[in-house]
Amino acid sequence: MASEFEIIRRYFNNHSRSVRLGVGDDGALIDLGGGKDLVLTTDTLVSGTHFLSSEDPTAIGFKSAAVNLSDLAAMGATPKYALLAITLPFSDEAWLERFSKGLYSVLNQYSVNLVGGDTTRGDVLSITLTAIGFVSSNKALRRDHATFDDDVWVSGLIGVGAVGLLIQRGTLRFSKRDEEDFLARLRKPEPRVELGQKLVGIANSAIDISDGLVADAGHVAKGSGTQIVIDFATIPTHTALNSSKRDPIIKNSILGGGDDYELLFTANPDAKEQIDSIARDLDLRLTRIGKVRSGSGVAVRDDGEELSVGFQRGFDHFAKRK
Ligand code: ADP
Ligand code: MG
Ligand 1, closest atom to CA 216? Predict the structure, then answer.
């Protein structure tokens, strides 16, 4: 069976030359003229695949907007408009009220107008949001512009979404306070929209971490024809994981888990002061975790030792299940 990425490459990868950037990045870029590029992205959340059917509808609404704005953030775009296609197995007004509240809380925060969509009945609840934004012409942050000797940076904390999922499943336990914090971050990831905008002209490349740190770093490495080397010890994570960072299950969550929606970006070492100043302005942790080198793929080192990482492919909806 073809993988998710094979399906996209074979059947959905044809466009005219007027498109500045088509399939393959967090968003597509269309040259609008007048110094602006249009940025387009879409993402689907399906009940049972992306969230439990019992999930709080406010969180589902929040997340469907957040994951799309996260892709615009990864392009450095200013979000403006959204379209919502929703398939509902029911018409439950209390559910819709809460879903809408969560959705609009994110859209309003970033002054994004919902301007259209589609509403249908179907067996499985499915939400597809398309987000539309703008960026100065040819200035978007792309996966394919990482440059030799760039520093590799990440925003926020890594592995939190994946650990949140393990807490939700009952696999991991922490103190009540920490568990609530992980679950809140899993349910309501904050798209790094301001960060993406501020990195335009500073970062050479960017991606949002939705598939997992190593997999998403791998997309940048592949797109840019470089290697990315990550120093495990420097990866910022939740304080509750400080003492267990090297337990296999936690290590796997940090390196291979998805759902963080932080930005990974690369920048010339000379940009460090500007990036530190952005971190202060936004009150957001920005951490250097590695370097762009010549070669290919992602290498993760810990205390001089190379970790074997089987996470380079990331999540594939059509991967063979063991
Ligand atoms: P992300 O994780 O950033 O949302 P994906 O992994 O979902 O990105 O998709 C990778 C790339 O493939 C993106 O550029 C996306 O727009 C494109 N893509 C995914 N599915 C399709 C499809 N059915 N048709 C065309 N392009 C697609
Ligand atoms: Mg993305």
Answer: 2
Residue located nearest, by CA, to atom 20 of ligand 1: 8
Domains and CATH numbers, the chain: 4-136 (3.30.1330.10), 143-307 (3.90.650.10)
User: For residues 197 and 160, what is the distance between their CA atoms, to the nearest angstrom?
Assistant: 24
User: Which amino acid residue places its CA nearest to atom 2 of ligand 1?
Assistant: 210
Alpha carbon distance, N-terminus to C-terminus of the chain: 14
* Bridge partners (DSSP) listed for residue 228: 292, 298
Among 104, 105, 107, 41, CA closest to 80: 107
Asked whether 71 lines ligand 1 (CB < 6 A), one says yes
Q: Say if residues 261 and 157 touch (Cβ distance below 8 Å).
A: no
- Of the pLDDT bands very low, low, confident and very high (cuts 50, 70, 90), residue 8 is confident
Q: Which atom of ligand 1 is nearest to the CA of 67?
A: 4
Task: Please indicate whether residue 216, judged by its CB atom, sits closer than 6 Å to ligand 1.
Answer: no
Q: pLDDT digit string (tens) for 247-274?
A: 999 999 999 988 999 999 999 999 999 9
